[in-house]
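hey can u check if this looks right to u? its 323 residues, i copy pasted from the old doc so theres a chance i mangled smth
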Amino acid sequence: MMPPSTEVVGPIIAETGGTDLVPSPSLEQAREFARQSKAESTLRGYRSDWRNFCESCDSHHLAPLPASPDVVASYIAECAGRLKVGSIQRRLNAIAEAHKAVGLDSPTSSGMVRNTLKGIKRTMGTAAVQKAAALADDIRAMVAATDAGLIGARDRALILLGFAGAFRRSELVGLDVEDCGFGKDGLTVMLRRSKTDQDGAGRKIGIPYGANPETCPVRVLQDWMEQAGITGGPLFRSLNRHGQSQLDRLSGIDVARAERAGLDVAKYAGHSLRAGHATSAAIAGASERSIMSQTGHRSVQMVRRYIRDGSLFRENSAGKLGL
C-alpha cells in the first residue's frame, strides 16, 4: 500500500518517506512549475479524489500505486451507485495523474477500465443536470433584492457586470481597477487570465452602456467605485462589519451569495449569470459568433451548452409545417 506521506499535489506526487535523497533546488523548482500547470481548484479536486481512492484500496488491502486495472475498474463500479458520471471521470483523472507523476503507466487507459466506464455511462446516462439560466427579468429581480448601502452597491455591480460580460466568478474577483477602461462607448475590461486561458494571453471584453441607469453595468460599477473610494487594486472587495471597504479581494463565496439574491437557490448556481447571458443573447437574435466573442468559448459546441433553451424555437422547422 502507498506510504501515508505520499500525497497528490496536482500533476506530481511528493516523494515517499522511503528515500533519503535530498531534492536539488532545480528539481524543487521543476516541481513548483509542474504544480502551476493546473488550476488550484483542479489540484484540490485531485487531492480529494486521490485520498478517496487510497482509502478505498486500504479498506480492501489493495495497493493504490501502482494500481491494477481490475482494482480501478472495481473502484469505479462501486462509485457508480453514488456518484455522477462526471465525478467518476474526475476520480479516474486523479488516479491517472498520480501514476504519471512517478513514471508509471496509468491503469485508467486499460480496456478493462474503459469498458467499465462505458458501461456505467450507458446504464446511468451522461446528461448533466443543468441549473437555470438567469435571464434579464431574473437579473432585475436580483438587483432589486440587493441590500442598501455600500454592500448593495457592490453586489449590484457584481451581478450586472457578471451578466453583461458573461464572466465566471473567478474572473470577476480577479479583476483590478487597472483592468478597466471607461470610454464614451462603455467599459473595456482586460481579462488577463481565465479558466480557458491559463497562460495569461488575455483578451478584451466590451461592456456597453445600458438604457436604464439603474441596471446599466457601466454606471452601476462606477457608482460602486465612487462610494467605496476605490482607485486602484482589486475591483471587488470585502466589507467589514461597519460596512467599510477593505483592501482584500472578494471571495467566490461572496459572489455566489450576491448572484442568487432574490432567486430560488435550488434552481440557480455559479454559471447562471454566464448561461443567462448566452441564453438571453440567443433569444434576442445574437449570432453564436458574437456570443462566443463575449463568453470566450472557442467552439460552437461549447457555447451551445450554455444556451439553455433560448434557441429551441428560433428557426424551428416544426414552425414551418403549417399546423
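The longest helix spans residues 40-59.
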